[in-house]
């Protein structure tokens, strides 16, 4: 397990309200930084398509868990234009940026941590949950997965788009090179160095891709698949898909 550290330490992991506050501060420049990441938005759309929902999401409810400034929400709205999309984030600053953009009426935003959705009035059943860059940043990913499982309708689908290293030395080396050579210097100039040091460490200290797939199965998801993404993020970022079993499957 990663050791606890003090802010400014290169191994710092921010959690809960400290992480939300760091994202609040970074919200003003977040879109600019991700726009410099080749394939960022295309990869989110690819993961949204991997939910495999029919008819553009017509008549379906979809939860975007950890929506940030709305990049994942935009991917869902493009791939599933007819779905009822509820986007949620723990950072008020990020959510304010997201909600200020132009959205169709079927997209709504709610301020809530993933651990306290019910308190904010976010209730199921949802036909699908999409979570991008979320699970390595929560204190108890198993508890959040259990919450997601409970929010899904029987047969409902989950897609997780996440930095999870594939296990090769080159995967960690490329991730570290990009973070330390490009992202962290720019973020430090913007006053957000602690957050982006956290984001590097949160990946190298989190599950490998195989372990995260096993975590999904251990929390009740079936038909779990680990799918790679192209470009420089191959072996670094993956889509994971799974389902909540139907009542018939559970009864077997």
UniProtKB/TrEMBL annotation:
Pfam families cross-referenced by the UniProt entry: Methyltransf_25 (PF13649)
Record carries keyword rRNA processing: no
GO biological process: methylation
Methyltransferase domain residues: 62-156
Protein name: Class I SAM-dependent methyltransferase
Signal peptide: none
Domain of life of the native organism: Bacteria
Annotated organism of origin: Streptomyces erythrogriseus
Keywords, sorted A to Z: Methyltransferase, Transferase
Alphabetized GO MF terms: methyltransferase activity
UniProt keyword Lyase present: no
